[in-house]
Amino acid sequence: MAAADRNAARRDASGRDATARRDARGRDHSASGRDRNASGHDADASDRDGHANNRDGARGARRASGRDGSSKAPDRPAVDRRHRVVVLVMDGVIPFELGIPQRIFGRAKDAAGQGFYKVVTCSVRPPGPVRTDADFEILVEHGPEALATADTVVVPASYELGPVHEEGRLTDGLAAALAHVRPGTRLVSICTGSYVLAAAGLLDGRPATTHWWHADHFQRLFPKVRVDADVLFIDDGDVLTSAGVAAGIDLCLHLVRRDHGAAVANEVARTTVVPPHRDGGQAQYIRRPVPEPRVATTSAARAWALDRLHEPLQLRDLAEREAMSVRTFTRRFREEVGVSPGQWLTRQRVERARHLLESTSLPVDRIARESGFGTAQSLRQHLQAALGVTPTAYRRTFNSAAGSRTEPGAPPEAGPDAAEAAGAR
């Protein structure tokens, strides 16, 4: 698994605490904004819903006072404790990429069906219409002030970046908008949204990626950025960048997995009908993503292996399923999946172990056998190498939220593919 995923996993336990602290600061900010609004100060456009609740509550309290003569103060509206994702859109935004954060974060829910995230869209200008690269506009109800309420800011791609793309500098309006972002806010770009983060100096000295088509230009324009054009996304802690288009889905699913575990991310992927996990280090561009008609593929071997992860599988076993030599199978497998059969198999077993640690109370020894690692020591070594944590630490972080069972359920839709679907790019 890519180094970026290992770094992200090491931060799972501490990162959740940091996110909680940012949530608390965001709630304090929102609460103070509502108090100011109740006392007659200017309203923040991003808090209009909360202000409306306050006004309705005040009117209800006055009606109640008129009926029973009581001067009891109205109850304060419930504070929205969800992680707040603010998506910054600019003229020329690509609708497909604009919709990714709402689709992925908006579908992440707990066992009671309550969402983990609140997704808000804002523009660089005051509320109003924003051009897309299609033949329609979108009406954005929030201005750049909404960025001040964000726990995570997402910048999708635009085809009208102007000086950002041509000269590597922010426009005055974009610079003013980004000034609202609080220190410590998590920053995410999709495709050429990375140009905005780089022009703001936020990627200097950091690893980052963008769409492979723009990678050379991006590197020339921003020489201080350590560009990797060969990966789907890079997680550098508080700043994350993705490659083009659908890689934004992979990155957002990765963030859900990082925040709330594999079970939640897998369920989001299931409802979105996408592969639940394509590793960040997987190749952006594979010249044979879909096999040519009537050419043998490795999909049947992958499906067969996913049902037998607990067994000691050998490369020749997989090759025999496709009636290929080991050499031909290995070459074809890498062309179709982007990694070697051994790397793929290890990732599937790690994902299986994660699923069992999250969703069952099975002993670590049993989970090691169920996931194909054989011994608890082998499981610890592989989980430490892949995620940077021990099985016990991983279970402590994610098991309580998902609930536990005594016996494992059906295998998860693990790894970069679930049978044929995994080859999608």
Characterise this structure:
- The chain has 425 residues and is α/β, with parallel strands linked by helices.
- Helix content is 45%, strand content 10%.
- It has 17 helices and ten strands.
- It has a six-stranded mixed beta sheet with strand order 2-1-5-6-10-9, sandwiched between helices. Strands 3-4 form a two-stranded antiparallel ribbon. Strands 7-8 form a two-stranded parallel ribbon.
- The chain is globular.
- It starts with a helix and ends in a 23-residue tail after the last helix.
- The model is unreliable at 1-71 and 401-425 (pLDDT under 50).
Can you summarize this structure?
The chain is an alpha/beta fold and 425 residues long. 45% of the residues lie in helices and 10% in strands. The chain has helices spanning 3-10, 12-38, 48-68, 95-105, 163-166, 172-178, 194-199, 215-221, 247-260, 262-272, 299-306, 315-321, 326-337, 341-359, 364-370, 376-387, 391-402; strands at residues 83-89, 117-123, 128-131, 137-140, 152-155, 186-189, 207-208, 226-227, 233-235, 239-242.
Spatial order of the strands forming the largest sheet: 2-1-5-6-10-9
Unreliable stretches (pLDDT < 50, length at least 5) are 1-71, 401-425
- What is the molecular shape? globular
Q: What are the secondary-structure elements, in order, as H or E? A: HHHEHEEEEHHEHEHEEEHHHHHHHHH
Helix content: 40-55%
Strand content: 5-15%
How would you classify the helix and strand content by structural class?
Answer: alpha/beta
Major β-sheet profile: 6 strands, mixed
Question: How large, in whole angstroms, is the Cα Rg?
Answer: 24 Å
How many strands in all?
Answer: 10
